[in-house]
Amino acid sequence: MENSVSEAKDIITSYHGPNLRIMEVCGTHTHEIFRLGIRKLLPESIRLISGPGCPVCVTPVGYIDEAILLALKHHAVICTFGDLIRVPGSEMSLAGARQQGAEIKMVYSPLDSEEYAKEHPEKNVVFLAVGFETTTPAACLAVKKARKDGLQNYSLLVANKTMPNAYLALKDSADAFLYPGHVNAIAGTAVCEELVKKGISGVVTGFTAGELLTALAVILKLSASGKPFFRNCYPRVVRPDGNPAAQAVMREVMEPCDTEWRGLGIIRGSGLRLREPYHSFDARLRYALPKITGHSSLLCRCGEVLQGKCRPNDCKVFGTGCTPQHPIGACMVSNEGACSAYYQYGGTE
Ligand code: SF4
Prior knowledge:
Elements: H1 5-13, E1 20-24, H2 27-35, E2 46-50, H3 55-58, H4 61-72, E3 77-80, H5 94-99, E4 104-106, H6 110-119, E5 125-131, H7 136-148, E6 154-160, H8 164-169, E7 176-180, H9 181-187, H10 190-197, E8 202-205, H11 209-223, E9 230-232, H12 244-253, E10 254-261, E11 265-274, H13 283-286, H14 302-306, H15 330-333, H16 338-345
Parallel strand pairs: 1-2, 1-7, 3-4, 3-5, 5-6, 7-8, 8-9
Antiparallel strand pairs: 10-11
Helix pairs in contact: 1-11, 2-16, 6-7, 7-12
Keywords: Iron, Metal-binding
Organism: Caproicibacterium lactatifermentans
Family: Belongs to the HypD family.
């Protein structure tokens, strides 16, 4: 840490520099910053923007439609993390498909889904693989285990993403990024050092009040130079080389591809897909899924929220037509979503 917590607080509250837009990329950062009351400490010149680090929020509508097609038409058992079940697709959510007879099973890890497939050879099981560098290694391990176990009834609908090219796509949305500590714990810090060369500033941080305040104070101090910068303010967890074992399993099982992000469109090289030796576990190939372009509610501004172009409470249906109980868009569904955080903590800024 470059400053003690009280020093960090002083730096933040006494800031009189130019306006700064700081994007907290990780949904957990968004929620912790609200929960800890850190937004209330910030002077008006500092604007925090909630970015696209919630995996459920950035998963496009067409992906939900693909999962529903697999469940209703191909009668696959869909295994997924809980949040995805309530995300609206073009016509319905997976919860809606369940009401029409689809078998949707909530799991806590990809390996649970592999185990379920092994125990139920009579069923075709599809795991919905979404998420970033943090969750991808576990999905890769599940595929490797399925191959070792000789499973013929198991596949993944892959929408895993990687962050570096998303930062480039969002370059103009923020003056500095609060990088997600969990992602950097896997990916390391070389990527952030590279981004400095491309004019992108940021600080990787953890999730405690002290870590978040310190990271914000470091951004304010380093921004004064006018030069791009990077600092690792989470060294107790993030090592420069990250987690080489997790990186190796990802490289072995998956390869980069272009992919769609809700609100950001296609970002080149920011997606992952299974490599050729694992193609038999690719649900899109196994079920010959057609290309599906989903459409979200015309009322929903998730796309703009995810780019920092508007705040959740700028959306006309925020807190009225759209609530965590009855979400219209993905950002209100997930606990990590910006709209959910604003709703839960009464955010206005
Ligand atoms: Fe979409 Fe609801 Fe957020 Fe509006 S409040 S942007 S409808 S998720």
